[in-house]
Amino acid sequence: AATIGPFMLMVGGAISPHEYPSVWLFWWLGDSLGVILFTPLILAWYKTSLQATSRDRLAIGLIIVQAFTAFLIFYGLLSEPFNTQRVTYALLPIVIWLALACPLRYTATANILLFFIAISGTAAGLGPYAAGDIVGNALSLHVFLVVVTYTTSLVAGVNAERIEALTRTRESADRFRNLLDLSADWYWEQDDQFRFTSRAGQGLENKGFRLDEGLGKTRWELDVEGMTEADWAPHKATLRAHRPFRDFVLRRRHSDGRLLYVSQSGEPVFDREGPLEGLCGVGRAFPERGLAHRG
Q: Where are the alpha helices (H) located in the chain, listed in sequence order?
């Protein structure tokens, strides 16, 4: 369009051949800026839920502040106390805040408002891009709007991907936790010295054990019954060989004095460079030994 339009004007005699480059440039500036501004706006608002949230209210407030600040700048109301050219930097904290804190659709909306305010103020002969050479001011205004639009859209897009990744991770963790509750009473982790660092799971507390019980201790330092050093030796050898284990059964006392058989399974976890990082696994508690077996 930027090439064909000016060419047809030149053929029709509306412009002379030497005016063609400048007309082409302004035509292209308008087309390119329109694509950069309106494409994110349409795509971001497409199939968007209209249910208001706290982030939506924050976004609306930031858009109002940004529009008001842009009005002060591009209608020359800040030219007296501040430098005319440098005053445009007052917008940067607001546009970046909006892009980081709110969905992309609000950044796209704010950029459209900024475009209309900047164009109308400059066309009225006001603001930082009104004085001096018309072509130079048009180019400077275009560059300013492109930089703001591209930067904020990029920041908002990256932030949206980050939020989506966090949401997927949280959903995966919730699914894992639900599956864990179905398949085991608790989940545990140990460091490279085989000391418990964390335990999680409702089944552990339901069986009369505290989640923080035994943290900082190894399995053989816990209060268990009927285990001698010779009984512990095969399990310690398995751990030191960095091999997984299954259904390792211990006898422990419930808080009310009942005897429970605790079956645990685990596997080693290695860091990216190879050394052992620790172990992780699951555990279940049974009232009778016949429901658990030593593996």
A: 4-11, 20-45, 54-74, 92-101, 104-123, 134-183, 202-206, 229-240
